[in-house]
């Protein structure tokens, strides 16, 4: 991998099962308690996730995978916990169905490790027009 990307992307040595990751992603959208993916000090975890998807793109260093999550709001550590768990699915360390189990049990110990922060970007905050209008 390029040394210029080491702080902007996570590089994996092993191939990923992208079909398994896509199957696992399909369990995430909807209103769930995401405590199983958040930092352990988080107490209340119900959130609505509108979209969870992965794209393959040709990037600076070859093939890149990009994960996109769109939701009402996110818990501290939730996105990194979801991505770390999805990577374990892709590496064959857990089944796609394990995502459903984590959502049901809300047990952080059932999830994979948090993905490192390299490559994690906040793209935008969108607000309904009525929230932006002066009162």
UniProtKB/TrEMBL annotation:
Q: Which residues form the Pseudouridine synthase I TruA alpha/beta domain?
A: 28-128
Q: Which InterPro entries match?
A: PsdUridine_synth_cat_dom_sf (IPR020103), PsdUridine_synth_TruA (IPR001406), PsdUridine_synth_TruA_a/b_dom (IPR020097), PsdUridine_synth_TruA_C (IPR020095)
Asked if the keyword Cell cycle belongs to this entry, the reply reads no
Reactions accelerated catalytically: uridine(38/39/40) in tRNA = pseudouridine(38/39/40) in tRNA
**GO terms for molecular function, please?**
RNA binding; tRNA pseudouridine(38-40) synthase activity
Q: What Pfam families has UniProt attached to this entry?
A: PseudoU_synth_1
Q: Which UniProt keywords apply?
A: Isomerase, tRNA processing
Source domain of life is Bacteria
- Its Enzyme Commission number(s) read 5.4.99.12
Q: Which protein is depicted?
A: tRNA pseudouridine synthase
Report the source organism. Answer: Thermus scotoductus
């Amino acid at each position: 991998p390029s040394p210029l990307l080491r702080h902007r992307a996570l590089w994996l040595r092993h191939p990923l099962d992208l079909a398994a990751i896509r199957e696992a992603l399909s369990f995430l959208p909807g209103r769930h308690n995401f405590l199983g993916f958040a930092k352990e000090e988080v107490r209340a975890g119900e959130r609505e996730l509108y979209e969870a998807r992965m794209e393959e793109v040709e990037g600076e260093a070859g093939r890149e995978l990009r994960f996109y999550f769109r939701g009402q709001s996110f818990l501290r550590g939730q996105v990194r916990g979801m991505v770390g768990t999805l990577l374990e699915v892709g590496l064959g360390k857990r089944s796609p169905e394990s995502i459903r189990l984590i959502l049901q049990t809300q047990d952080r110990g059932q999830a994979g490790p948090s993905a490192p922060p390299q490559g994690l970007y906040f793209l935008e905050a969108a607000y309904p027009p009525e929230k932006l209008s002066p009162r």
